[in-house]
């Protein structure tokens, strides 16, 4: 059953969404820079060691830390792409319109998930 909740609505709602998305984008950019610096520090500190990851008692911990930082950085970059895409949709007037059916995305969904591209009916399940 389709939702009766209208899409993003008046200009003030769109301005609020734009402000939230810009703030989130700035926060993500800062977080990515910090994680890149953290990765540089981890790599530099492991270079100072003569042991390799396999034989160094701390090697597995360092490898795990690098892996975690890389995964978190990639996740932040993906979310930043979503935020930037939402800002583009705001600029071109398609924000709040389902990319599948062309119907308005309910305002509640956009409030909870400002980067939403589809209405709830057309959300694709996440990969396992």
UniProtKB/TrEMBL annotation:
**Could you cite one Gene Ontology molecular function of this protein?**
zinc ion binding
Which positions make up the signal peptide? none
Keyword Zinc assigned: yes
Origin: domain of life: Bacteria
> Gene3D superfamilies, per this entry?
DksA, coiled-coil domain (1.20.120.910)
Q: Name one Pfam family in it.
A: zf-dskA_traR
Query: Could you confirm whether the keyword Lipid biosynthesis appears in this record?
Result: no
Q: Which residues form the Zinc finger DksA/TraR C4-type domain?
A: 93-120
| Keyword field | Metal-binding, Zinc, Zinc-finger
PANTHER family this protein is in? RNA POLYMERASE-BINDING TRANSCRIPTION FACTOR DKSA-RELATED
Identification of the protein by name: Transcriptional regulator, TraR/DksA family
Annotated source species: Ornithinimicrobium cerasi
